[in-house]
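queue> holo job accepted (zinc ion)
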Amino acid sequence: MKERRSVNASLFRSFILSLFEDMATKRDYYEILGVDKNVSPEDLKKAYRKMAIKYHPDKNPNDPTAEEKFKEAAEAYDVLNDPQKKARYDQYGHAGMSGAAGGYGAGGPTMDDIFSQFGDVFGDDSPFGSFFRGANGGGGGRQRVRRGSDLRIKLKLNLQEVANGVEKKIKVKRHVTCTTCGGNGSKNGTAVQTCSTCQGTGQTRKVVNTMLGQMVSTSTCPTCNGEGKLVTDRCDTCFGEGRVLQEDVIPIKIPAGVAEGIQLSVGSKGNVPPRGGVAGDLLIVIEEEEDADLKRDGNNVVFDLYVNFVDAAIGMSVEVPTIDGKARITLDPGTQSGKILRLKGKGVKELNGYGRGDELVHVNVWTPKTLSAEERSLLEKLRNSPNFQPKPNKNEKGFFDKMKDFFHG
Ligand code: ZN
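queue> job finished
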């Protein structure tokens, strides 16, 4: 008798401990759905729909956090939507929901539990209803074509490639359909049979007689996981996955005028899903490499030209870099520092347009920073020469007017 009590006591203690564990890790059901205790059934449903859409596994592939949240929301809705469970939760919290009390165990509801709820949460006519039905092969026997994940890569382009457009061959590792089995994952492509549990529909239906008539509840077939087919002998090449990882070279045409951060998409060059379906897209994110000489300013490019004041005073012919190689320009005698020369059409092509920007050559007259004794005496002789005295006339625009001209002229 004494021994038995101690066994019961230790069982009781571990039960209490497990409750504390649950209470410590579980979030409040109202907090999960963002509603308060007096929430109406309609608002509760609305709040749950929002969460279910946000964290739906189809929208968040391979994201365990999203799946956790998805399950958490389903569990919270299941409890708060049931007046009896809600009353018990309100009184006792998570402790009232544990184990024998009729709530969920540590694992919470299964995905099947959750999807079988969707019929009443989203309704058959709502777009969400069909979205979720499709995603899980639900009611109506419609099968959605499964789509693989997108692949995203970064592509660095130099200024010339950006300005003129370029064709590139890009190497990517992607999941492609296994050619041995044709994508169904079975040996020689033939060792596959229709799932006998669901007759190939991917879902099981349960008819329940109630006072209101017959209710049909559907859930993902547990035998085939909703695929409707079972592989009896696995393909040796892909080990039943129906796809293999392969390095592909994909040619793509980058239009002229793209900019940092622009994303281009190549249809159906992403991954195919396991056991058949269509491939996702290949997404290319553009990165611009900085040019050593030319700075891009919208569709224009800017070059800073430095000349000595003798060249500026006498005039000269000089080569400047452009996007497409060198170009020769002439500086008139008496060119002032700050003058901007425009090379028409030497800029970046307009994205999706016919225009093209210009190259702006910004003249900077260099003043010597150190002088030898000889240089100094030569310059001293010129110091008071009349032509060396600044005499800006009305046509000699200051920096401010020049900028105004370029932005509004
Ligand atoms: Zn295969």
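queue> The pocket of zinc ion is lined by residues 178, 180-181, 185, 235, 237-238, 242 (CB under 6 Å).
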